[in-house]
Amino acid sequence: MTRLIFLGPPGAGKGTQAKVLADLGQIPHISTGDILRAAVSAQTALGIKAKNFMDQGELVPDDLVVDLIQERLSQPDAQPGWILDGFPRNVVQAQALDDLLTTMQQGYDRVINLDVPDEIIVQRMLSRGRQDDNEETIRRRLEVYREQTEPLIDFYDQRHKLTTINGAQPMTAVTAALADLI
Ligand code: AMP
Fold first, then answer.
1. Closest residue by Cα to residue 138 from 113, 120, 153
2. What pTM does this model have?
3. Ligand 1: which atom is nearest the Cα of residue 54?
4. Are 80 and 27 in contact (CB under 8 A)?
5. 18 touches 31 (CB < 8 A)
6. Which of 17, 26, 50, 106 could be a cystine partner for 101, CB 3.0 to 4.6 Å?
7. CB distance 65 to ligand 1 below 6 Å
């Protein structure tokens, strides 16, 4: 499997696991959060538009991230496959991704839902110390996840593409479960 989408709450370990699998499969790990943070640091037009949304734990407007992902997926290194981490974040983005992949005559193999209880998420996020990881924005990001991103679990389940993995296990156990799957 060379085209995977990682779904799960903030702090579920999506980034860590996506990176391991991408290295194994020698395909790019595409994290919209990483790309946006780099744009904020570099103060590009995208970064300037995205910064306030990110600082407040809100989603960056769909058109910005859809454009970003369209551009990234059309790069040569993404032609053999990719792992998406942090995109799509809502149904509008998921539909935009379906349309984009249809246009590119591609599809995705699986959507991996990393399932982690709330208490563990908050603990993990507080210990990671990122700029947007203070308690208030963590709470808001979790709310945004429940309201906007969690409905994607049903969206992909209905398309028979979803696999849920227990993300509360130790990191190496999660990696082993993922390696088994793919
Ligand atoms: P992440 O690193 O995936 O937790 O993303 C950090 C922040 O970047 C999020 O809280 C959002 O503000 C923004 N972001 C990342 N990916 C998306 C996306 N697909 N749609 C909208 N905003 C995003």
1. 120
2. 0.95
3. 12
4. yes
5. yes
6. 106
7. yes
